[in-house]
Protein backbone atom coordinates (compact mmCIF):
# COMPACT_ATOMS: atom_id res chain seq x y z
CA UNK A 1 0.00 0.00 0.00
CA UNK A 2 2.84 2.38 0.81
CA UNK A 3 4.32 1.71 -2.61
CA UNK A 4 1.02 2.45 -4.30
CA UNK A 5 0.60 5.72 -2.43
CA UNK A 6 4.17 6.62 -3.42
CA UNK A 7 3.35 5.94 -7.07
CA UNK A 8 0.26 8.16 -6.81
CA UNK A 9 2.33 10.91 -5.22
CA UNK A 10 4.81 10.69 -8.10
CA UNK A 11 1.96 10.83 -10.63
CA UNK A 12 0.50 13.85 -8.86
CA UNK A 13 3.87 15.60 -9.02
CA UNK A 14 4.18 14.86 -12.74
CA UNK A 15 0.63 16.07 -13.47
CA UNK A 16 1.23 19.20 -11.42
CA UNK A 17 4.44 19.98 -13.30
CA UNK A 18 2.71 19.47 -16.66
CA UNK A 19 -0.21 21.68 -15.64
CA UNK A 20 2.11 24.49 -14.59
CA UNK A 21 3.81 24.56 -18.00
CA UNK A 22 0.77 23.68 -20.15
CA UNK A 23 -1.07 26.99 -20.08
CA UNK A 24 -0.87 29.89 -22.48
CA UNK A 25 1.12 33.07 -21.99
CA UNK A 26 4.36 31.52 -20.75
CA UNK A 27 6.91 29.12 -22.17
CA UNK A 28 8.11 26.16 -20.05
CA UNK A 29 11.49 27.87 -19.71
CA UNK A 30 9.85 30.97 -18.26
CA UNK A 31 7.97 28.80 -15.76
CA UNK A 32 11.14 27.22 -14.45
CA UNK A 33 12.80 30.64 -14.35
CA UNK A 34 10.00 31.99 -12.14
CA UNK A 35 10.15 28.91 -9.90
CA UNK A 36 13.86 29.61 -9.51
CA UNK A 37 13.13 33.15 -8.29
CA UNK A 38 13.54 35.00 -11.60
CA UNK A 39 11.20 36.19 -14.32
CA UNK A 40 9.49 39.54 -14.79
CA UNK A 41 6.43 40.79 -12.92
CA UNK A 42 3.94 39.58 -15.54
CA UNK A 43 5.35 36.06 -15.60
CA UNK A 44 5.39 35.86 -11.81
CA UNK A 45 1.76 37.02 -11.70
CA UNK A 46 0.65 34.42 -14.26
CA UNK A 47 2.38 31.57 -12.48
CA UNK A 48 1.93 32.48 -8.83
CA UNK A 49 -1.48 34.16 -8.95
CA UNK A 50 -3.23 32.18 -11.69
CA UNK A 51 -1.65 28.82 -12.47
CA UNK A 52 -0.63 27.77 -8.96
CA UNK A 53 -4.04 28.36 -7.30
CA UNK A 54 -5.73 26.70 -10.27
CA UNK A 55 -3.53 23.63 -9.73
CA UNK A 56 -4.28 23.45 -6.01
CA UNK A 57 -8.03 23.90 -6.54
CA UNK A 58 -8.04 21.09 -9.12
CA UNK A 59 -6.24 18.74 -6.71
CA UNK A 60 -8.55 19.55 -3.81
CA UNK A 61 -11.77 19.40 -5.83
CA UNK A 62 -10.82 16.03 -7.33
CA UNK A 63 -10.07 14.61 -3.89
CA UNK A 64 -13.36 15.92 -2.49
CA UNK A 65 -15.50 14.47 -5.27
CA UNK A 66 -13.78 11.09 -5.10
CA UNK A 67 -14.23 10.80 -1.34
CA UNK A 68 -17.86 11.91 -1.62
CA UNK A 69 -18.48 9.26 -4.28
CA UNK A 70 -16.95 6.45 -2.22
CA UNK A 71 -18.95 7.50 0.85
CA UNK A 72 -22.18 7.53 -1.18
CA UNK A 73 -21.54 4.15 -2.78
CA UNK A 74 -20.81 2.64 0.62
CA UNK A 75 -23.74 4.25 2.43
CA UNK A 76 -26.30 3.52 -0.31
CA UNK A 77 -24.81 0.13 -1.30
CA UNK A 78 -25.08 1.19 -4.93
CA UNK A 79 -21.99 0.97 -7.19
CA UNK A 80 -23.55 3.51 -9.57
CA UNK A 81 -24.19 6.11 -6.88
CA UNK A 82 -22.35 9.37 -7.41
CA UNK A 83 -22.56 12.93 -6.08
CA UNK A 84 -25.26 13.65 -8.65
CA UNK A 85 -27.76 11.36 -6.87
CA UNK A 86 -27.84 13.65 -3.84
CA UNK A 87 -29.12 16.64 -5.80
CA UNK A 88 -26.13 18.64 -4.57
CA UNK A 89 -24.42 19.11 -7.93
CA UNK A 90 -27.45 20.53 -9.81
CA UNK A 91 -28.48 22.46 -6.68
CA UNK A 92 -25.09 24.14 -6.47
CA UNK A 93 -25.23 25.01 -10.16
CA UNK A 94 -28.72 26.46 -9.72
CA UNK A 95 -27.62 28.50 -6.71
CA UNK A 96 -24.59 29.98 -8.45
CA UNK A 97 -26.46 30.76 -11.67
CA UNK A 98 -29.44 32.28 -9.86
CA UNK A 99 -27.23 34.51 -7.72
CA UNK A 100 -25.34 35.63 -10.81
CA UNK A 101 -28.56 36.34 -12.71
CA UNK A 102 -29.89 38.44 -9.81
CA UNK A 103 -26.66 40.41 -9.65
CA UNK A 104 -25.82 39.12 -6.16
CA UNK A 105 -22.64 37.36 -7.28
CA UNK A 106 -20.26 37.21 -10.18
CA UNK A 107 -16.93 35.81 -11.31
CA UNK A 108 -15.25 38.92 -9.90
CA UNK A 109 -16.50 37.97 -6.40
CA UNK A 110 -15.51 34.33 -5.70
CA UNK A 111 -16.80 34.37 -2.12
CA UNK A 112 -20.33 35.31 -3.16
CA UNK A 113 -20.39 32.65 -5.89
CA UNK A 114 -19.10 29.97 -3.53
CA UNK A 115 -21.63 30.86 -0.84
CA UNK A 116 -24.47 30.85 -3.37
CA UNK A 117 -23.38 27.47 -4.75
CA UNK A 118 -23.08 25.96 -1.27
CA UNK A 119 -26.53 27.26 -0.36
CA UNK A 120 -27.99 25.77 -3.53
CA UNK A 121 -26.25 22.44 -2.94
CA UNK A 122 -27.54 22.21 0.61
CA UNK A 123 -31.05 23.13 -0.59
CA UNK A 124 -30.90 20.31 -3.15
CA UNK A 125 -29.83 17.85 -0.47
CA UNK A 126 -32.61 19.07 1.85
CA UNK A 127 -35.20 18.56 -0.89
CA UNK A 128 -33.94 15.01 -1.39
CA UNK A 129 -34.12 14.41 2.35
CA UNK A 130 -37.76 15.55 2.47
CA UNK A 131 -38.72 13.31 -0.44
CA UNK A 132 -36.91 10.35 1.11
CA UNK A 133 -39.03 10.80 4.24
CA UNK A 134 -36.17 12.16 6.36
CA UNK A 135 -33.93 9.16 5.94
CA UNK A 136 -36.50 6.42 6.55
CA UNK A 137 -36.40 5.37 2.90
CA UNK A 138 -34.13 2.56 1.86
CA UNK A 139 -30.93 3.17 -0.18
CA UNK A 140 -32.60 2.34 -3.50
CA UNK A 141 -35.41 4.85 -2.86
CA UNK A 142 -32.87 7.51 -1.91
CA UNK A 143 -30.99 7.01 -5.17
CA UNK A 144 -34.21 7.18 -7.24
CA UNK A 145 -35.39 10.31 -5.45
CA UNK A 146 -31.96 11.82 -6.04
CA UNK A 147 -32.31 11.36 -9.79
CA UNK A 148 -35.73 13.02 -9.69
CA UNK A 149 -34.46 15.95 -7.60
CA UNK A 150 -31.54 16.43 -9.99
CA UNK A 151 -33.91 16.53 -12.96
CA UNK A 152 -36.13 19.13 -11.28
CA UNK A 153 -33.19 21.33 -10.33
CA UNK A 154 -31.80 21.05 -13.85
CA UNK A 155 -35.15 22.21 -15.19
CA UNK A 156 -35.11 25.21 -12.83
CA UNK A 157 -31.64 26.10 -14.10
CA UNK A 158 -32.99 26.05 -17.65
CA UNK A 159 -35.83 28.36 -16.56
CA UNK A 160 -33.32 30.83 -15.10
CA UNK A 161 -31.52 30.75 -18.43
CA UNK A 162 -34.76 31.57 -20.26
CA UNK A 163 -35.36 34.55 -17.98
CA UNK A 164 -31.73 35.74 -18.15
CA UNK A 165 -30.30 34.52 -21.48
CA UNK A 166 -27.23 36.67 -20.91
CA UNK A 167 -26.09 34.17 -18.28
CA UNK A 168 -25.50 31.41 -20.85
CA UNK A 169 -21.74 31.51 -20.35
CA UNK A 170 -22.11 31.18 -16.60
CA UNK A 171 -24.55 28.27 -16.94
CA UNK A 172 -22.23 26.39 -19.29
CA UNK A 173 -19.24 26.86 -17.00
CA UNK A 174 -21.09 25.55 -13.97
CA UNK A 175 -22.79 22.68 -15.80
CA UNK A 176 -19.63 21.44 -17.50
CA UNK A 177 -17.08 22.23 -14.80
CA UNK A 178 -13.92 24.25 -15.22
CA UNK A 179 -10.86 25.39 -13.28
CA UNK A 180 -10.38 28.43 -15.50
CA UNK A 181 -9.94 31.66 -13.57
CA UNK A 182 -9.53 30.10 -10.15
CA UNK A 183 -7.53 32.29 -7.79
CA UNK A 184 -6.17 32.09 -4.25
CA UNK A 185 -9.52 33.06 -2.75
CA UNK A 186 -11.09 29.90 -4.17
CA UNK A 187 -8.29 27.82 -2.64
CA UNK A 188 -8.53 29.48 0.77
CA UNK A 189 -12.27 28.80 0.81
CA UNK A 190 -12.03 25.21 -0.40
CA UNK A 191 -9.20 23.49 1.47
CA UNK A 192 -10.38 24.02 5.10
CA UNK A 193 -13.86 22.83 4.13
CA UNK A 194 -12.53 19.77 2.31
CA UNK A 195 -10.11 18.90 5.12
CA UNK A 196 -12.76 19.12 7.82
CA UNK A 197 -15.39 17.04 6.04
CA UNK A 198 -12.82 14.61 4.63
CA UNK A 199 -11.60 13.94 8.16
CA UNK A 200 -15.20 13.41 9.30
CA UNK A 201 -15.72 10.93 6.47
CA UNK A 202 -12.57 9.01 7.45
CA UNK A 203 -13.83 8.79 11.05
CA UNK A 204 -16.98 7.10 9.68
CA UNK A 205 -15.07 4.33 7.90
CA UNK A 206 -16.08 1.75 10.51
CA UNK A 207 -19.84 2.39 10.26
CA UNK A 208 -19.57 2.69 6.48
CA UNK A 209 -17.94 -0.74 6.29
CA UNK A 210 -20.87 -2.23 8.22
CA UNK A 211 -23.37 -0.42 6.01
CA UNK A 212 -21.75 -1.97 2.94
CA UNK A 213 -22.55 -5.38 4.44
CA UNK A 214 -26.24 -4.55 4.82
CA UNK A 215 -28.50 -3.00 7.44
CA UNK A 216 -29.20 -6.35 9.13
CA UNK A 217 -25.52 -6.97 9.81
CA UNK A 218 -25.08 -3.37 10.94
CA UNK A 219 -27.97 -3.70 13.38
CA UNK A 220 -26.62 -7.02 14.64
CA UNK A 221 -23.32 -5.29 15.36
CA UNK A 222 -25.14 -2.63 17.40
CA UNK A 223 -24.97 0.14 14.79
CA UNK A 224 -27.89 2.46 14.10
CA UNK A 225 -28.01 2.17 10.31
CA UNK A 226 -30.27 5.20 9.92
CA UNK A 227 -28.04 7.47 12.00
CA UNK A 228 -24.83 6.27 10.37
CA UNK A 229 -26.27 6.69 6.88
CA UNK A 230 -27.47 10.19 7.75
CA UNK A 231 -24.01 11.24 8.91
CA UNK A 232 -22.38 9.67 5.87
CA UNK A 233 -24.73 11.43 3.47
CA UNK A 234 -24.10 14.70 5.29
CA UNK A 235 -20.35 14.31 4.71
CA UNK A 236 -20.89 13.45 1.05
CA UNK A 237 -23.21 16.43 0.56
CA UNK A 238 -20.76 18.84 2.19
CA UNK A 239 -17.78 17.58 0.18
CA UNK A 240 -19.72 17.72 -3.08
CA UNK A 241 -21.08 21.19 -2.37
CA UNK A 242 -17.61 22.55 -1.65
CA UNK A 243 -16.10 21.03 -4.79
CA UNK A 244 -18.95 22.07 -7.09
CA UNK A 245 -18.94 25.56 -5.62
CA UNK A 246 -15.27 25.88 -6.58
CA UNK A 247 -15.09 24.21 -10.01
CA UNK A 248 -18.62 23.35 -11.12
CA UNK A 249 -20.00 19.93 -12.00
CA UNK A 250 -17.11 17.66 -13.01
CA UNK A 251 -18.76 14.61 -14.54
CA UNK A 252 -17.96 11.00 -13.60
CA UNK A 253 -15.18 11.83 -11.09
CA UNK A 254 -17.30 10.88 -8.09
CA UNK A 255 -18.70 7.85 -9.88
CA UNK A 256 -15.68 6.06 -11.36
CA UNK A 257 -12.73 7.11 -9.18
CA UNK A 258 -14.07 5.23 -6.11
CA UNK A 259 -14.10 1.98 -8.11
CA UNK A 260 -10.51 2.56 -9.16
CA UNK A 261 -9.52 3.32 -5.57
CA UNK A 262 -11.13 0.12 -4.27
CA UNK A 263 -9.41 -1.88 -7.02
CA UNK A 264 -6.04 -0.39 -6.02
CA UNK A 265 -6.36 -0.32 -2.23
CA UNK A 266 -8.93 -2.97 -1.39
CA UNK A 267 -12.24 -2.85 0.44
CA UNK A 268 -10.83 -1.53 3.74
CA UNK A 269 -12.21 2.02 3.77
CA UNK A 270 -9.56 3.16 6.23
CA UNK A 271 -7.11 2.79 3.35
CA UNK A 272 -9.28 3.13 0.25
CA UNK A 273 -10.85 6.43 1.39
CA UNK A 274 -7.54 8.35 1.46
CA UNK A 275 -6.61 6.34 -1.63
CA UNK A 276 -9.71 7.67 -3.37
CA UNK A 277 -8.71 11.20 -2.41
CA UNK A 278 -5.25 10.69 -3.93
CA UNK A 279 -6.62 9.10 -7.12
CA UNK A 280 -9.25 11.81 -7.52
CA UNK A 281 -6.65 14.54 -7.14
CA UNK A 282 -4.42 12.90 -9.76
CA UNK A 283 -7.30 12.34 -12.19
CA UNK A 284 -8.62 15.91 -12.08
CA UNK A 285 -5.14 17.45 -12.14
CA UNK A 286 -4.13 15.25 -15.05
CA UNK A 287 -7.36 15.98 -16.90
CA UNK A 288 -6.86 19.71 -16.39
CA UNK A 289 -3.32 19.51 -17.73
CA UNK A 290 -4.53 17.50 -20.73
CA UNK A 291 -7.34 20.01 -21.32
CA UNK A 292 -4.87 22.91 -21.37
CA UNK A 293 -2.52 21.09 -23.76
CA UNK A 294 -5.44 20.15 -26.00
CA UNK A 295 -6.64 23.76 -26.00
CA UNK A 296 -3.25 24.97 -27.21
CA UNK A 297 -3.04 22.30 -29.90
CA UNK A 298 -6.59 22.91 -31.12
CA UNK A 299 -6.06 26.67 -31.18
CA UNK A 300 -2.94 26.22 -33.28
CA UNK A 301 -4.61 23.72 -35.63
CA UNK A 302 -7.74 25.82 -36.10
CA UNK A 303 -5.79 29.09 -36.15
CA UNK A 304 -8.00 30.40 -33.37
CA UNK A 305 -6.70 33.16 -31.15
CA UNK A 306 -8.17 31.75 -27.94
CA UNK A 307 -9.78 28.35 -27.46
CA UNK A 308 -10.51 26.84 -24.05
CA UNK A 309 -11.45 23.22 -23.44
CA UNK A 310 -13.10 22.88 -20.00
CA UNK A 311 -11.72 20.11 -17.83
CA UNK A 312 -15.28 18.95 -17.10
CA UNK A 313 -15.86 18.20 -20.79
CA UNK A 314 -12.77 15.99 -20.82
CA UNK A 315 -13.67 14.09 -17.63
CA UNK A 316 -17.23 13.56 -18.89
CA UNK A 317 -16.10 12.16 -22.25
CA UNK A 318 -13.39 9.92 -20.80
CA UNK A 319 -15.63 8.79 -17.94
CA UNK A 320 -18.51 7.89 -20.24
CA UNK A 321 -16.17 5.96 -22.54
CA UNK A 322 -14.63 4.08 -19.61
CA UNK A 323 -18.04 3.22 -18.17
CA UNK A 324 -19.20 1.92 -21.56
CA UNK A 325 -16.10 -0.28 -21.84
CA UNK A 326 -16.63 -1.73 -18.36
CA UNK A 327 -20.31 -2.47 -19.03
CA UNK A 328 -19.57 -4.12 -22.38
CA UNK A 329 -16.79 -6.25 -20.90
CA UNK A 330 -19.01 -7.48 -18.04
CA UNK A 331 -22.47 -7.82 -19.63
CA UNK A 332 -23.64 -10.27 -16.99
CA UNK A 333 -22.79 -8.07 -14.01
CA UNK A 334 -25.64 -6.57 -12.03
CA UNK A 335 -25.09 -2.93 -11.15
UniProtKB/TrEMBL annotation:
GO terms for cellular component: plasma membrane. InterPro entries: ABC_BtuC-like, ABC_transptr_permease_BtuC. Keywords: Cell membrane, Membrane, Transmembrane, Transmembrane helix, Transport. It comes from the Bacteria. It is found in: Cell membrane. The chain crosses the membrane at residues 52-73, 85-105, 111-131, 143-163, 190-211, 231-256, 307-327. One of its GO terms (biological process) is siderophore-iron import into cell. SUPFAM superfamilies: ABC transporter involved in vitamin B12 uptake, BtuC. It is a multi-pass membrane protein. GO terms for molecular function: transmembrane transporter activity. Belongs to the binding-protein-dependent transport system permease family. FecCD subfamily. This is Iron complex transport system permease protein.
Amino acid sequence: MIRRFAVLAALAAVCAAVELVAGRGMSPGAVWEVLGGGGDATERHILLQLRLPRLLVALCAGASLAVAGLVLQSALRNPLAGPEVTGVTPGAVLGAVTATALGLAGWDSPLAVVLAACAGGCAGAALLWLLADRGRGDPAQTAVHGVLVSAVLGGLTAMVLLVEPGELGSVVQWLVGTTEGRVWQHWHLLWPWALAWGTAAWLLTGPLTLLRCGDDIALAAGLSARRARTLALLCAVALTAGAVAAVGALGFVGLLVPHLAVALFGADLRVSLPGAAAVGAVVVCGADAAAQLSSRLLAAALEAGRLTLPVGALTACLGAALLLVVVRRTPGRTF
